[in-house]
C-alpha cells in the first residue's frame, strides 16, 4: 500500500522528468464500470476492522453496504508537491506542544487536498474477508507434484472470480483508464492503472498488464511458447510507461506474483521507489528473470519447487496438511 516515506530517487530527476513525475492531477481517473452506478459510502455500516496499519495509513473495514456484505479499504494518499503552497495557505493550524525551537500542530488542510482513497468490494465473499484479514503467514514449498495434486485442484475449485479481468478485456469496465493495448490474441495485453494507484503522482506508480490469452493461470503454466508474449509485455509495457509518465525502464519494477490472488496471467509494473508489500522476494518474480529462466530451462516453471507465502488459515494450508506436506 502507500509508502509516503522519502523517495530515494527523487534527488536525481531532471526538472523535465520531475515535472512529469509530480503533476498528474487531471489525468483520466476512471469510469463507472459495467453497471454505471456509483456507491454512496455514507450508507456503509462498519462491523469490524479486518486489518489496519499506522505506518501505511490504511484500514480494512468489514461491514454492510445496502444490506450486502462489503469490505472498504481506506488509504491516506501521498502528498502532491504541486499543491503544497495551496495546502499551507488554506490550512487551519492548532498548536499542540511547543518546546524551545520545536513545536507540533494539528494541521488541517483544505478538504480537497486531504482526500482518502476508498476501495470497495461489494458484495464481498468470505474469500475477500479472509484475504484482507491479518493472519499468521508461513512459507510453503510446492514441488511439481504438489502443484498437480494439491494447488491446481484448489485453484480450480476455490480461486477468486476473474470477472473483473474479463470486464477489462471486453471493455465493459475501466475502458477509459486503459493506457496501452496490444490487441493481438496471442501476444497482446491491456495496460492500465492498478486499483492500488490513485494516479496523482508517479512516485507510487502501479500499473498492471493483463494478457488477452485466457489459458495462463499463473507462473506455473509458463513455457518457452510464451516467451514472445512475455517479451512483448516487457517491451511495449515499459515503452508505454516512458511515453505516458516519463518514467524510464530502469526505474521500474516489473514482476509476477506467485501465488497470485487472481488466476488470469497479469504482470505488475511499479515505480522502483515505491515499496509495495507484494513486491517482496517471497512473492514477486521479476519478469526479466522469468524470461531468462525459461530460456535456460524450458521446463523451469513446470518442474521447479516454488516457494510462496500463505496465511495459516487459508484452505490451501489445510490441504497441504491433509496431504502430509506440512
Ligand atoms: P494479484 O497478483 O493477483 O494479487 O494481483 P494481489 O491482489 O494479492 O496483489 C492482482 C492485482 O490487480 C492487484 O494489484 C490488485 O490491486 C489489482 N486489482 C484487483 N481488482 C479487483 C482490480 C480491478 O477491478 N481493477 C484494477 N484496475 N485493478 C484491480
Automatic annotation (TrEMBL):
Its cellular-component GO annotations read: nucleus; P-body
What is the E.C. number?
Answer: 3.6.1.59
Give the keywords, sorted: Acetylation, Cytoplasm, Hydrolase, mRNA processing, mRNA splicing, Nucleus, Phosphoprotein
Its main subcellular localisation, reduced to a broad class, is cytoplasm
Enumerate the subcellular locations listed in this protein's record, separating them with semicolons: Cytoplasm; Nucleus
User: Which parts of the sequence bind substrate?
Assistant: 164, 174, 194, 196, 257-268
Q: Which reaction does it catalyse?
A: a 5'-end (N(7)-methyl 5'-triphosphoguanosine)-ribonucleoside in mRNA + H2O = N(7)-methyl-GMP + a 5'-end diphospho-ribonucleoside in mRNA + 2 H(+)
Q: GO annotations under biological process?
A: deadenylation-dependent decapping of nuclear-transcribed mRNA; mRNA processing; RNA splicing
Residue spans with biased composition (Polar residues)?
A: 1-12
What positions constitute the catalytic site?
266 (nucleophile)
> Which Gene Ontology molecular-function terms are recorded?
5'-(N(7)-methyl 5'-triphosphoguanosine)-[mRNA] diphosphatase activity; RNA 7-methylguanosine cap binding
Q: What does this protein do?
A: Decapping scavenger enzyme that catalyzes the cleavage of a residual cap structure following the degradation of mRNAs by the 3'->5' exosome-mediated mRNA decay pathway.
> What family is it from?
Belongs to the HIT family.
Known partners and oligomeric status: Homodimer. Associates with components of the exosome multienzyme ribonuclease complex, such as EXOSC3 and EXOSC4. Interacts with NDOR1.
This protein is called m7GpppX diphosphatase
Originating species: Myripristis murdjan
Q: Which gene encodes it?
A: DCPS
Amino acid at each position: 500500500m502507500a509508502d509516503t516515506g522519502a523517495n530515494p530517487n527523487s534527488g536525481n530527476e531532471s526538472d523535465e522528468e520531475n515535472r512529469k513525475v509530480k503533476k498528474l492531477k487531471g489525468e483520466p481517473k476512471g469510469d463507472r464500470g459495467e453497471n454505471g452506478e456509483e456507491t454512496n459510502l455514507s450508507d456503509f455500516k462498519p462491523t469490524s476492522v479486518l486489518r489496519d496499519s499506522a505506518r501505511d495509513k490504511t484500514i480494512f473495514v468489514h461491514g454492510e453496504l445496502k444490506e450486502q456484505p462489503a469490505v472498504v479499504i481506506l488509504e491516506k494518499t501521498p502528498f502532491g508537491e504541486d499543491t503544497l503552497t495551496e495546502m499551507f495557505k488554506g490550512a487551519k493550524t492548532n498548536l499542540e506542544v511547543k518546546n524551545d525551537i520545536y513545536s507540533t500542530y494539528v494541521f488541517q488542510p483544505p478538504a480537497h487536498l486531504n482526500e482518502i482513497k476508498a476501495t470497495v468490494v461489494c458484495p464481498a465473499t468470505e474469500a475477500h474477508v479472509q484475504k484482507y484479514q491479518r493472519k499468521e503467514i508461513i512459507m510453503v514449498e510446492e514441488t511439481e507434484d504438489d502443484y498437480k495434486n494439491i494447488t491446481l485442484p484448489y485453484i480450480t475449485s476455490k480461486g477468486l472470480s476473474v470477472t473483473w479481468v474479463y470486464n477489462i478485456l471486453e471493455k465493459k469496465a475501466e475502458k477509459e483508464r486503459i493506457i496501452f493495448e496490444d490487441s493481438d490474441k496471442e501476444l497482446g495485453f491491456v495496460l492500465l492503472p492498478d486499483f492500488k494507484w490513485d494516479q496523482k503522482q508517479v512516485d507510487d506508480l502501479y500499473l498492471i498488464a493483463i494478457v488477452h490469452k485466457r489459458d495462463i493461470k499463473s507462473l506455473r503454466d509458463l513455457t518457452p511458447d510464451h516467451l514472445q508474449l512475455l517479451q512483448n509485455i516487457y517491451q511495449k509495457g515499459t515503452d508505454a510507461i516512458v511515453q505516458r509518465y516519463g518514467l524510464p525502464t530502469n526505474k521500474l519494477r516489473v514482476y509476477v506474483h506467485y501465488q497470485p490472488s487472481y488466476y488470469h496471467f497479469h504482470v505488475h509494473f511499479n515505480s522502483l521507489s515505491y515499496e509495495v508489500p507484494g513486491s517482496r522476494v517471497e512473492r514477486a518474480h521479476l519478469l526479466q528473470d522469468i524470461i531468462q529462466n525459461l530460456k535456460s530451462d524450458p521446463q523451469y516453471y513446470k518442474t521447479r519447487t516454488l516457494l510462496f507465502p500463505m496465511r495459516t488459515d487459508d484452505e490451501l494450508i489445510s490441504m497441504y496438511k491433509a496431504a502430509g506436506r506440512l
